[in-house]
């Protein structure tokens, strides 16, 4: 695992299908298998935490309106597109 990564580490054993391990090794490169798996597990933990947060919020406030979510997502995309187009300095070209 990357020595610059904060936090303590502990060696453990994990069983993976051969194909899965081969795919990880092919993609991990210099990063290494342990770092690759650590990052993948961290992303999964974040997804589960977000799912739990959403479930709690929906239990308290009711389900989210998909139309409203789509409208807000479109406003965010439009905002980023506008700022991306205007991000170059005026004298750049």
Describe the overall structure.
The protein is 65% helix and 0% strand. It contains 3 helices and no strands. It has helices at 18-28, 33-61, 66-85. Helix 1 (18-28) packs across helix 2. The protein is mostly helical and 93 residues long.
Looking at this protein, list some descriptive labels.
single chain; 93 residues; mainly alpha
Briefly note the structural class of the backbone. mainly alpha
The unreliable regions are none
* Count of β-strands: 0
Mean pLDDT: 89
Helix fraction bin: 55-70%
SSE topology string: HHH
State the shape: extended
Radius of gyration: 21 Å
Alpha-carbon distance between the two ends: 43 Å
Strand content: under 5%
How many helices in DSSP terms?
A: 3
Biggest sheet architecture = none
Short structural summary:
By secondary structure, this protein is mainly alpha-helical. It has three helices and no strands. The mean pLDDT is 89.
Strand-helix topology:
Elements: H1 18-28, H2 33-61, H3 66-85
Helix pairs in contact: 1-2
